[in-house]
Amino acid sequence: MINLRIVSFRILFFVSLFFFSPSIYAQTIYYVDAAKSDNNGSGLSWANAKRDLQVAINLANSGDEVWVKAGTYLPTHDPFGNTSPANNRDKTFLLKEGVKVYGGFAGTETSLGQRNWRTNITTLSGDLGIINTLTDNAYHVVLSVNLTSASLLDGFTITKGYATAPSLSRITVGTRIIDRFKGGGIYNSNASTGFFNLRITQNNADCTNQDDDSWGAGMVNENCNSSITDCLIDGNSFLVGGNSFGVFGSGMIIVGGNCTLTRCVFTNNTSGSGFLDGSRGGALNITTGAHTLTNCIFYNNTAMNGAAVAFGGGEFNTSSFVNCTFANNNSSFAGTAFSGFADAVFRNCILWNNAPTVSSVANRNEIFSQETRTQFQPTFINCIVRDATGSPLGVTNTIMNGVLNGNPLFVNINDGDGADNIWGTADDGLMLQASSPAINAGITGAPVPGADLRSFNRDAQPDIGAYEFGNALSSNADLSSLTISSGTLSPTFTSGTTSYTASVANNINAITTIAVRAESNASLSVRINSGSYASLTSGVASGSLSLNVGSNTIDVRVTAQDGSTIKVYSITVTRAAPEPTLTASGSLSAVNTTYGSASATPTSFTVSGSDLT
User: Fold this and answer.
1) Closest CA to 348 of 232, 434, 468
2) Interstrand relation of 545-546 and 71-73 (parallel, antiparallel or unpaired)
3) What does the alpha-carbon distance between residue 173 and residue 144 come to, in Å, rounded to a whole number?
4) Which element (helix H / strand E) includes 4?
5) What pLDDT score does 606 carry?
């Protein structure tokens, strides 16, 4: 027998779920523009954007996105929502569960794929108070606490955080203790937040009374499982002459958890010297956990110990480094590339020209493992290690298999990112020369990545290091197709012709264009009438391009994969003037002729319209 009450309840429940829970299905995009005068706009379009990023984040619900136009943004709230906190330096950008925050917009985009975070620089700055005065800056530019991987920060520069305070100076956010003397750029606590396409730069930290250690001037990851991808961690530092007992990980520290770092570059981070307990990890410090780093670069970082990476945790640190390059780092003491205790594994990595400046130890300048228990010593498989010696080649307190010690023959070790100062482009100095012993010398199979730092496919027999040889960056900046939604291009499109004309009727006040790149790694952008370029997705219609009456110029810019070859296709679109209109009213006045006369009601004529001649 059917229980009608149960059936009715189930129907009512699902009907209620469908009609009264739209947030389950809906996604809202909130827009932010620093040029707005206030936050009075709804935030639901570029025209009605919010001015302050935190206001938009607070409005958003899980599943929503926040799009941020290029510009510089300062934190306006502390983690508890106060706009005028007792300590102004507690203001921060607090990320929110399930909310994805994207920077890099020109302010005209209608799809995420149209943004260009490289050209539309979007900065989250801790420079509160007096501009360019560090001492009143925010302790942490960004806070991420207790969030899942549904939360995201993508396409920003994070800068001018100043995590300086005495020991025990802290706040509690979501039950987590956040020390004010750690994590100047980003403090990521007990979270799985995703961080993509970030530049974390010029952040500082210090414990000002020598009673505690300072961590992660650039970024702290404490008990986190975050993915950190395509990020540049550059120029972060602990204060010269600071008062911390010890300092750990100027660029970044990872304490526990299982983080994944992919195609990240650590450069120019410095941990300084003079601290009672020394400085460890100029680029990175890893204490415990099982973290995976792939296709990463460690270049020109400094510290007293472990200028590239300092390790702790022994058997509780089972981190993995795959196809990473360590070069030109400088420490005071031996172990410039690797220092400390860890049961870590390095595969297909290059450790070269990392040198101590004060105390040198033969065979241990690149790697200084302090682990004497053989079962927990770090392992190096098919790596190039400059000062490995013996037969077979080895380093004290390590396990080595298939290791080489020959010069990897970088293109230019003294200019890691090349003349364009952009990592991952055709002129990078840490790419391999044709005669490099690293070529085809790596191991195969998991966990070796299928592509390198530049996202070029690796060979069946991969190379050692972050760059795969033989995959020169393409200089192809051609289009294979170019169309507009109204009008016809003249002449007919060919990839070698860059100038076109078209005409449209007056009633066409906007058009779109579809451009298809000839080479899959080229990037596209579009503008009209010399405005700002907006990112364009190959094969997808652009946003609406408004037309003035008369001549309009649409530029489609193609940037080749090498980052330096650029071709611009221009379309001059002429929008017709409005058709003239003529109206007349009244009747004939009296008419006199030589043949007689006629009479009529006097009147006048009215002529109106536009563009009459």
Assistant:
1) 468
2) unpaired
3) 10
4) helix 4-20
5) 52
Asked if residues 366 and 389 have their Cβ atoms less than 8 Å apart, the reply is no
- Interatomic CA distance for residues 252 and 266, integer angstroms: 9
Q: Is the dihedral of CA 388, 390, 395, 398 positive or negative?
A: positive
C-alpha–C-alpha distance, residues 413 and 425, integer Å:
15
Contact status, residue 162 vs residue 139, Cβ threshold 8 Å: yes
Helix (H) or strand (E) holding 54: helix 53-59
pLDDT-flagged residues of the chain (< 70): 1-26, 240-241, 274, 471-473, 581-613
9 Cβ contact list (under 8 Å, min separation 6)? none
Beta bridge partners of 340: 311, 369
- The b/e string for 94-114 (b: 16+ C-beta within 10 A; e otherwise) is bbbbbbbbbbbbbbbbeebeb
480, burial (CB in 10 Å: exposed 0-12, middle 13-18, buried 19+): middle
Residues sharing a CB contact under 8 Å with residue 611, sequence separation 6 or more, in sequence order: 577, 578, 580
Strand partners, 356: 331
Query: Cβ neighbours of residue 25 under 8 Å, at least 6 residues apart?
Result: none
Task: Fill in the amino acid letter for 200.
Answer: I
Its pTM stands at 0.79
d(CA 52, CA 540): 31
State whether residue 140 is helix, strand or coil.
Answer: coil
The answer to whether 384 touches 405, Cβ cutoff 8 Å, is yes
Please name which of 191, 183, 204 lies closest in space to residue 153, comparing C-alpha atoms.
191
